[in-house]
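Box 4.2: Ligand-aware structure prediction
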Amino acid sequence: PLIEDLDSLPFPDFDLEDKYYILNDSLTTEEPPVGGERLEYAYHMMTSRGCPFACAYCCNSEFKKIFKGKGLYVRRRSPENVVEEIEKFMEKRRIEIIHFWDDVFTFDEEWVERFKDVYSERIALPFVCYAHPAYTSKRVLKLLRDAGLIIVNLGIQSGSDRTNLYVYHRAQRAEDVIKGSLYMKELGLIRHYDLILDSPFEDDEDHRQTLELMLSLPRPFLLNTHSMCYFPKAEVTVRALKEGLITPEEVEGNAHKSTTAFLVDVTRPQPKLNLFWNILIGMTRYRVFPSWFIRLCSRNRFLRNHPGLMVPVVVNVVRILTKGKRIRDRYVRWRERRRRKKMEGFPIEVREENGTWYVTLRNPEKKKKRIMFSLDIYPLFQGRHQDRHLGWWNIYIDLPADGKKEIKVDYSFPFTVFEFDGKRHLAEKRWVGDFRDKETWYRVGFIVYSENGKLLGAKEIRVSPERVFEERRISLKDAFMDFLRTAPPKQNIFERVIGRIFRFFYKRAYPKEHAFFQNLPWLLYMMGEMEEEFKKLKEDVLSYSSAVPREEIKESIYKRYEEIFREEDETRGKMKEYVKYFRGKDPVLDAGCGKGEFLEILDKEGINAYGVEKNPVLFNHCINRGLKVEKGDVIEHLSSLENQSLGGIFASHLLEHLYPREVSDFIRLSYAKLKPGGVLVIELPNPSSLYSLLEFHRDLTHKTPLHPETVKFLVEDAGFKIKEFSFINPPEECLRLLESTGDDDKKLINKNFELLNKLLFGGRDFFLVAEKEG
Ligand code: SF4
């Protein structure tokens, strides 16, 4: 049976004692470098066993058959266990990067969430992992990026949906790849793609789709192009043999492609057509070949018949590029070494007491020295890119000859007060980026520059986002007084000369105004800050009118989601009734499409429709089902559309989740965005049935019970003409009052029963169909 509790397995033995390595035919006790310079300080490990997929060319499809009935195939270690192994290794050796070799690292969102917390807290080293296009939601990628993810290896294999779905049995579409890649780019992750080329199952159209997909991905990226290998018994092998696409000699065992020639090499002899597409697809990763040029080549008949002519050109261009890159990499490494050496040359000590940093600077020279001290904050895994700085704060300080000075750094976002020589100095913030991610860990640099901007030394510490965005501990009044007291010195020569002359006169003539204008950018910044705070406050008030804590609401949404999940067939059955209203009304918007049942029904009916969904769980669910859905707020989405661009709008159980003003906005916007003759179908809980009203409050995300008459009024007021209105979904018979039969004298009682039933147990929901008249 398969081992289910992976945490029960022991860690590898990291002790170097009594261990020998074979290196260059001789025994050594020294650990050999693994994988060259890039991987020298890397630790390689897996957090799971098994893969949720079973691609037709992969060993996992065979393993799944072999281990069928022998226990859970996909198993994962707990994040704590993973982190413990890394910590054990770190006790023995230096590591700078971790490679997670799990087949699909991103498949379990809940696990990733826990991993992020534990890993950022205890390890916080950059890492690399593999992902599948079906599991590249922005949330998962962001959680991992915040934990330290820097490179994602994404298996694309083919740009053709036909090949992926029907030949390789990979549950993914080209649009998943594009979406995932855009998220990765947005999050600043390095993208590394895998493709399978030389596939005998692919025709020209498939190759072209792969080429187009690669051209549509944001560049630059890294690319591994693999040549299809045939493993015995794998589904693709069996099929290729059956269809006569390969001979038994090409199957691994007889052939050794998987160990000797698994990467595509355009200098090797190969069929003309394969060579043609392999070159073009390989070119997509180099920015030196513009997309239009690659497309032009792909349509050129001469090149298609003589692809060999492209080889020397492409190979030499790539060779020059890689050589240039290698030189550049060497230069970057040299510069980094020099920087580190320099940084170590100027002694800086940092200690922290009650949330305040105390920095001791020593002047190693025999004469007094004027330095610029800088507090520099930037995200831990983003590199020191200017745009990604949270900001930096500078102050000029005179260090005594051969002496030291302690600076109290009182930092609280966005103000920093440096205190030394018994005086407080509000530092000048020279932020260039305005990077504010409240989940990412940050690096705080205490940096010393010479007066003319030469780096002398630096000390860096890691800080949590909570610390970086800690609430202000200085009052606005104090901050303002500090502004008025501090005249930040300028750095460049122009500012120094012109600024000094100007300030000399201006300061004397208008000292207060001078101080005011000097600090005007700060004031504006503070106002911006306050505006942000108000916005957030407003959002909070608007989104959580309930006194129930946020987490409880979140959980209840998930719970509800599960409930909906169980009722899927029932929901689908009811929704089919609405299809008739949308025939010939393309395109249809399913506003708040939930799990996308109605989209699926419309799709089957051949009606062009798409959905908009805000809830990330439901959105991902739709994406995984291959549905056309956009993530976002319905009202924002409607506002972004052109007027008269939709044929139909379906809003099933959406309006009760909106605030009254939003309900009216939604209806008005719907009218504006529908073409003449377009329909709006709304289904809502009916609060005029007491039973339904009672049910309404089960769901904590419900905001406004909407009386049918109110909805009718709003719809007509917006300009619609109501075509149909009906109460539907009555409560089950067993919930209704029993009616008496027979005698005439009981008619009255029955009539009352009827009234009572209507009041108590009227239809739980109602729907209406409204048309925008042409
Ligand atoms: S996703 Fe990757 S590891 Fe999993 S079955 Fe497919 S090819 Fe194999």
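In the box above, the bound molecule is iron/sulfur cluster. The first helix runs from residue 59 to 66.
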